[in-house]
Amino acid sequence: MTFKIIIPARYQSSRLEGKPLLDIGGIPMVIHVVQQSLKSKSNEVVVATDDQKIFDVVENFGYKAIMTNVNHKSGTDRVVEVVNLMGWSDNEIIVNVQGDEPLINPLLINQVAEYLENKKDIFVSTACHSISDYNDFINPNNVKVVLDKNSQALYFSRAPIPFPRDEFTQKIIGKQGFYKHIGIYAYRVKFLKGYKDIGQAELEDIEKLEQLRILYAGHKIGVVASTVIPMTGVDTLEDLEKVRKLFLIK
Question: How far from 40 is each of 29, 45, 95, 110, CA to CA, in Å?
Answer without folding.
Answer: 18, 10, 11, 6
